[in-house]
Amino acid sequence: MQKVTIFTDGSARGNPDGPGGYGAILRYVDSKGAVHEKELSKGYEKTTNNRMEMMGVIAALEALRRPCQIDLYTDSQYVVNAFEKGWIRNWKKNGWKTASKEPVKNRELWERMLEAAKGHELTFHWVKGHAGHPENERCDKLATEAADSMKK
After folding, report:
1. Which residue of 37, 76, 91, 141 pairs with 53 in a disulfide if CB–CB is 3.0 to 4.6 A?
2. Is 140 a catalytic residue?
3. The 18-29 sheet, strands edge to edge
4. pTM above 0.85, yes or no
5. Which residue in the list 14, 36, 121, 130 is annotated as catalytic?
6. What is the pLDDT of residue 71?
7. Domain parsing of the chain, residue ranges
């Protein structure tokens, strides 16, 4: 199984409902030891920070063409905790309701992320944002540039 490292970040200006964007870096080393990287980013006119954090992960996973062993680094505790603390499993089990019986926010993106994750071995890693992590800083730059490109 191909090993891939993914870094993601999201940004929203005027959260909620301002322009936003995501950035992602996909990296793998081929059998000859050559490093390959792909950067992804996209802007949206009206969105939230959480949606952009999720879209960075979704876009990166959807870019993969075969099952991979993935280490995914994000500064979004929202995304990491949904998987690592079992929130997403409980939401699905409870008909996409939270523990307080409220509808889960961003359900369509959670479902899209789950679909994109199928077939992969996925390990999430939380990194502190704006703390000098080179790939997180690059993803932040991609995300904010994408968000800024949507300003009118």
Report:
1. 76
2. yes
3. 35-47, 18-29, 2-12, 68-74, 121-126
4. yes
5. 130
6. 98
7. 2-148
